[in-house]
# Entry
Amino acid sequence: MRTLGTLIAPTAGSAVVARIPISAATGAEIRQRISIMPENPGLYLRLTVQENMELFASLYGLRAPGARIRRALEAVNLAGRSGDVCGRLSKGLCQRAGLARALLSEPTVMFLDQPTSGLDPVASRGVHDLINGLRERGVTVFLTSHRLEEAERLCDRVAILNTRLRSVGRPEELRTSLFRRSLVVETAAPVAVPEAVFSSGSGVDSWTSEGTTSYVLDVADPRLAAPNVTRALVAAGVDVVSITEARHSLEDVYLQLIEDDPEARR
Amino acid sequence: MMHLNGGRLVAIARKEVREYRRSRFIIGTMVVLPLIFMLDPMITIFAVGPTARAALVARAVGSTFLLLLVVPAVVPATIAAYSVVGEREQGTLEPLLTTPVRREEILLGKALASIVPSVGIAYALFAVVVVCAHLFASNPTVASTLTEGPHILAEALFAPLLAAWSIWVGTAISARSSDVRVAQQLGSLASLPPLGVTALVSFQILAPSVALAVEFGLGLLALDVALWLVVSAMFDRERLITGARAQRADGTGGGPHGEVRRIRRTGGDDGGRSDT
# Structure
């Protein structure tokens, strides 16, 4: 993130930020179009929220920034606390003030380092809503997080790092690249002859039982296989409790990647 | 050619002043140190008897003058020593450096915020001592000696030049330091060497004169300019964040056998210095 934020020179390779290739000559130009919120919001604790905002407005060269500051503070529900000294704010409020500061310059790319770190669920939801709002406005949000459910909820594309870059892609692509698609079948009683019911004719490639009344079926196309399997179960006189497509979370993806990579397990 | 943005420079200076005003330590430094360095000169000049010889008056005025010049040397050093390491401790350095602000604007803004109050305090103290000498000193030649041309010129010239020296030294120490207190102690110590010449004058090893004041002033000015160049070069974004400067593409100064290669940064918005 520091490299993309033009703070540290790349050791190798190339990168493009806000459509501008990173180089010594383009550092200032990139910084004009981006904003960064580190994990620690980095507010001047002896200054008020308003004074922090005024400072950064001046550094971005914003003329008559009053309206911009107001909009940024309103976006994080902090307009009523603009006169508060930052050192007296709770961590959640500091995080929101940091976000407001990052919004101030109306950047095209925002780098957010663990923006919900230390926040309670309500505050986290507020930050998530804000990030979703930014995405809808066309702002590219580069988010780092240890919370994989947060990445899953917010990100269009995910890069998984563990010492080095392990994988990058849309969450769905990552899932399908690592896991076979499957159906989870719950029945009221054990299926008498499962191999007959879960035959390849119903679109099932293979199956395993998990307990006495639960079965995991590997399928190529769940939308095609689920009705076939349901019909076969009903025809066999089995009471079906549920048939759902198995959902692999990003956490499963992460763990699978680590498991597959001996270097990462070290 | 360096293009500075006045708005950004003033914004940094204003931020610094606001922080000082709300820091007990800095306010304490700005109040207590000058008072200490004013009390001793007062006692010295009031202790000069009405019939004291000219040499004794000159020595008293010399030591007064030396102590008054400690103020513009020490006060800004303490503040400047906090300037970078304080940002690092607060976690504000990274957000600050990712804005379009230039390093020269940060440095000059910070310097402006500490030089103005420091020099203001130094001039005010000098004025108070002169007025008190006029009103209360039992020996009338004390006041007239204090306001002789070389002394006035030296006070006017040396206060800002000594303050500038202290600011650049303090900032250089601050940029390489990870602890505020260590930076402030080193900064205070490093601010004192230029006072050597004024000490020689005070102890009458050198005779005060306009020529000496101008020569010493020019010397200090040259030192200040040289220090500004050094500090400006040290104020590299990457070095401030990681403690290491970007490596050159040829691998010099890189990791073992130069296998860690970094992009050489040339040209750019700052006249070719590495400041991506």
Notes: The longest strand of chain A covers residues 164-169. Chain A has two domains: 16-155, 180-245. DSSP finds eleven helices and eleven strands in chain A.
